[in-house]
Structure formats: structure tokens, C-alpha cells
Structure prediction request, 519 residues.
Amino acid sequence: MKTFLYNVGYFHRETWRIVKSNLLSNLFSVLGTGLILFLFGMVATGTLIGNELLAKLQQEAEISAYFSETMDESVALLLVDEIKEIEGVWNARLVGEEESRSQMEDLLGEEAGILELFEENPFAAFIEIRIHLDSMDTVLNEVDNLNGIEYVRDNRAVLERLQGIIGGLKIIGTLIILAVGITTLIILSHMIRQGIYNNREQINTLRLLGAPGSFIGFPFVMVGLLLTLLGGALATILINVLINSGYSSIDGALTFIPLPSQQGLMMNISILIIAVSLVLGLLGSLFGLSSIGKNR
Amino acid sequence: MIRANGVYLRYPDGTEALKDINLHIKPGEIVYITGPSGSGKTSLLKLLLGMEFATLGSLEVMGMPMVKGKTASINKLRRKIGPVFQEFKLIDGRTAFENVMMGMRFLGMPPRKMKDEAKNALIKVGLEEKMASKVENLSWGQQQRVAIARAIARKPALILADEPTGNLDQENAMNILKILHNVKDINTTVLITTHATHLLDGIEDANFLHVDNGSIRVEGKGW
Prediction:
């Protein structure tokens, strides 16, 4: 530790010397790493937005329970209370006939005029039950078995499809993240090996003078970290520009999509990219350094 | 300091570089290893620095058995040695001062002390004017002196100098030998290989080993 503290200036100079000794290759490495991390950032952004979307949709997972038209409202309200007690249900409320019609009008939008053709309100009152998606099967079963419930309708097919899409995206995301990690490690360890090769005579001399591996390798680790951090910074700038323009272009146009807050997303993605670049930089350098292992 | 019993060194191509070497060198001794080119002088120093390992026999340097695979221990041992290589092994692109500093950076010395030791060593070898010169711009003789300065600045327990006067004129060569003799004052053991036996006339405070064809032929004090 003392040796490291005494040589901070030396390590700093060595790091820049190694970077400058192969400047063009190192610049391309920064660009390559930056673009790979940008790709990773895009996947991570998509995953974060997808997770937010799924969480919101899961919160809004609901089933509709229809009861006998002859049932008194007070009895229906008792039924609502009973449903609220079921595990997996986080809210239940009675939707009257008028509200039911109004919901349909909202859904139909400009086509709502078609409802004028009906002399009487064709929509029945029902119980709107908000549930946790994971408990859908048990809740459906229990609600269906309640006295007075005639029919239960769920939107499971839609939710399951959405879950499937997001699950697929997660798999693709994981594969891309793996590819990004491996590619960055290969680029970086190659650069470090190149640096070691270019400095092989100096390394050999230092070994013969008794320099420990950690002393010889430290500047190379610094180079690896510097290259990936610069790549990470580049990726962070690009991804923030992308998120900014993405949010600007959908601002107001797609208000029904539950997007996470822009500032929060940008902050999270930036931290993630920088953390990933640090880890990859360290690992890549250590892989590259494994070639300094001989005693001659 | 150094103890060798029946040491043999055979290179992978079958060349037998050293045969039945028996040595006992005490701390503070100065030993000249003489012999023609290819006689095994450099091979012996390589064994002592852990660059090669005996194929037969046993060798101990500062109490440490020199056997293959003890990387960390050999590194520690090397920190106590001041090697002067025949081909100098200086680091291009750095000044003479930086090269001397490089030999001390991992010895745990405070920066101020390192700088003082480096300056003093370069002054000792007569290179005070060339401290800031890049080593590749120095003459062969000056580079050799930088290599010697790097070795002595470390205040080692053992100096292994391989042909340290090889590229120097008579006057500079004598000066270098004088510098290497002076480190005896701090109880440093010095092993110097040379084929220039004419430089050794009159040297009395040293021991001599004459190596020929991989074996020690003559051993003695004075010449």
C-alpha cells in the first residue's frame, strides 16, 4: 500500500504513456466500447420501460364479476366486501349500469354513437375487481364460487400476451447484455495484451529487478478502466440524447403509455452504464494481465 | 550469501552451460568471475538471479533455495539484488534519472529518498550532466553507467554485474570497478564477470574464479 501511495504520480504518468503509445488503437477501442455500451444502454432502457409498463399493467389487472340482475344493490355491496377479503384482491367496487355504459362510451370514442341505437341501457352493473396478476387463477376460482355471481370475465389473455412479449424482450436483452459483456472483455483484454506486448522489454526488466506483479500490472488496469470509462461516458451521452429525443417525440401523443419519469430513467441508465463499464474495465484488464505470469 | 553444491545447468537444446559448480561466497566479498566468451559466466549469474534454475545440484542465495516455481520469493530476493546486465536492460524513452528511479519504485522508499539516492548514484558514476537525457541518446558507455547507477542506488545486499566494463575505455572501466569496490563499505557482496583480465592487475581486495567450458578451473585470492 505504501509503495502505491509513494508512486501515485508514476502510475498516473505510466497510464498516460501507455495510452499515448498506441493512441489511435486506444481511441478506436473507446469508440467501439462506447458503441457497444450504447447498445447495452438501449437494451437496458427498453427493459426498464418494459418493467415499468408491466408493473403498471399488473396493477391494473382486473376482472369483472357479473351478478344476477335481480340482486339488490345492498346485497351486491355485501358481495363486494366479501370479494375484498379474498387473498390476491387489492380493490373491488361496484360499477353501476350508467357507469358501465359510460365506460363503454369512453372505450368506443367516436364510435360511441352506436349506443344511441339502444332504447334501454344494454349494460349491466358488475363488480370491478383489481387483483395481483400472480393470484389470478385462485381469485377467479373463488369469485366464481361465490353465491350470487353468475359470470366472471377476465383480461388474462391480454395480460399473458403482454407478459410473454416482455419475457421475450428480457431474454433478448439478457443475450445482448451477455454479448456486450463478452465483446467488451475481448476488446479490452486484447488492448491490454497489446499494451503488454508493446512494453514487454520494460516489463521483463522490472521483473528482473524484483517488481511485484501488482506494481507492473497496475498501470495496465488503470488503462483498462480509463478506456471503458471513456467508452461508458460516450455511451451515457448518446443514450441520454436518445431518451431525451424519444420522450420529446412522444410527449403528449401517447399519454396512455405509463412511461417512467425521464429524469429518473436517465439517471438510472447513466449509473448503470458507468457501473457496467467499471466492472468490465476491471475484468478485461485482469484477463489481459493474466499474460504477465512468467518469472523470467 | 551464496552457496552452490554440485550445480549443473543444461539448456533445453542440450548445451551444458555449467558443470559441477561448488561455491561459498560470504557477505561483503568481492568476487571476479573471469573466463572467455561462452565459458558460462553469464549462465552462473542467471542462476543467481533466478532467470535459470539448476538442472542438478543445489543453490542458495541469501539463504533462499533457488528452485523453480517460487515466483513470489524469487521476486522478493531480486529486490535485494542489484543486477547490471550485459545488454543494460534500460527503459527507452526515459531519462537516465527515471531509469535509476525505476529500480527503486517498488522497494517502499519515500519519493524524496528515492530521488536523493538516484541523484547520488548518477553522480557517483559521473553522469550528473546527463541525468535528464533520454537513455537512447546516451553512448554505450554512458548507458552502462546508468545501469550501474540503477544497481547501486538500490543499496542491494548483492550486486551481480555482467561485464560492467565491457563497453568502457580503460579509464572509465577502472572508475566503474572502483565504484563497485566501494559498495563493499556497506557490506554488499559483489560478483563481477569480465573477460578483460588486464583490468584486474593489482586488484588485491577480491577473490577470483576462472570459469572455462562451464567449470570453475581456478579459484583464488589476488591474481
In short: The radius of gyration of chain B is 17 Å. Chain B has one domain: 2-221. The mean pLDDT of chain B is 88. The beta strands of chain B are 2-10, 16-25, 30-34, 56-61, 64-65, 81-84, 158-162, 189-194, 207-212, 215-221.
